[in-house]
Specification:
Strand content: 25-35%
Mean pLDDT: 92
Number of helices: 3
Helix content: 10-25%
Amino acid sequence: MALTFTLALAADHSPLQDFCVADPKSQVLVNGLACKDPTLVKANDFFFRGLHLEGNTSNPVGSKVAPVTVSQLPGLNTLGISLARIDFAPWGTNPPHTHPRATEILTVIEGTLEVGFVTSNPGNRHVTKVLQKGDVFVFPVGLVHYQRNVGYGNAVAIAALSSQNPGVITIANAVFGATPDIASDVLAKAFQVDKDVVADLKSKF
């Protein structure tokens, strides 16, 4: 007796129409955002202004991210791409974070940046590089990564991401600033520190 197994896979990751401008007012629940009536689409749905403006880096980490995702530019909906401008004060940091839905490719526009990412368990290898103006670096999807200005002047980078809604999880904010909070004894064991240290860290987020 012969057994035959047939596996059929069907997928189309390409757009099925010219565009699908996001309609944030739609009551339709989909994985993403519903499409605006194409007859009502205007040029401004595909337009964003302001990426030339310097970000305010007067904050504890010394950096400012200006995203251009589907939330700011509805025409990006379903197209699988977005970008961001990142400004850094001298020695400012874009803290360790992940993009759960996107790979990131970063180009240094001005200044000198130390960048890096960490591979998954169990290796946890730290892959790092110092970048100069015009250099490009890739952060694979989902991996923890960061950037730091190691120059004495301001720095600017442009990041492109492989999703219109890449998401961002800043590690410190997520762990110490969760709502409701993660139990202090859980974090004390995870980080192998005293609960008082955990309480102090939570107070900052």
